[in-house]
Structures are given as C-alpha cells and as structure tokens.
Write a structure and sequence with these properties.
globular; Aminopeptidase; 34% strand
Length: 151
Amino acid sequence: MIIRAVRPEETEALSDLAFRSKAYWGYDEAFMEACRKELTILPAHLSSCHLRAAEQDGVLLGFYRLSPREHEAELADFFVDPAAIGRQVGKKLWLHMLELARAQQIARVWIHSDPHAEGFYAKMGAVRAGDVRSTVFPDRELPLMKIDLTG
C-alpha cells in the first residue's frame, strides 16, 4: 500500500468512497442523501488542502483531507473504503497525516468526528474536546476531537 497525493481525476471516486464509508454505519437513505454535498471532494480541495489517498494495486482504499489554518488544522475528511476496514488502512493514513502535520509545523489537529468514528480517533491518541454542531443537521451534535502535536 502506498499513500500519495490525490490526482484531480480522482475527486469523483473519492466522493463515492466517502459516501460508501459513511453509509457503512447504517445511516438511512434520507440521512445519506442529506450528507452527499458534505461528502463531495471538489477539485478546489487539491490546492487548498493536503489531500492524500491510500492505494494498493491501483485501488483506492481510503483518503484524508487536512485543512491547515496557521499552526492548527482540521481533519476535514478521513474515510476508509468499507472493503478495506480492518486492514490497518485507517491507522496508516492516520500516521501519515500526523507526519505531514508535524512537517507543516501544525501544533493541533481538530476533528469534527462522526459518532461512530470517535473510538478510532481516541485509539489513535485524539481526545474529546467537546461537541460541535453538524453542518448538515443543525440539531445534531458531533464529537469535537483534537490531537496535540507539540509534546
């Protein structure tokens, strides 16, 4: 498996991967359709964010999008294809993201976590810092996670 920069022609495939990954948690069709825009990877993300994909034998297994802001960043997207769950893809992407963040002198990474992913982020060393309102469903609160990279 390699982790590399995303190519412009892959944004649609990554959007589909994100949709499948979110649906893995059993959300109903109406919920998923409401999330579709939020799960769409745009070509503009390639120039404004660090967008990296895990690939093996030409197959995209997962990706992350790190959006830097001064000395902090938001992990805006972090998705693993359901077929690759349990194969250490998430862990490898996470470690790659941390390495990239440190190289960019980012002191803290913030994550607006799906409730189902909170356990993964905690296992990777992130801590819950509170709650944040969903950008899709205003009445829904999401775990706000963070990982400090200064220590």
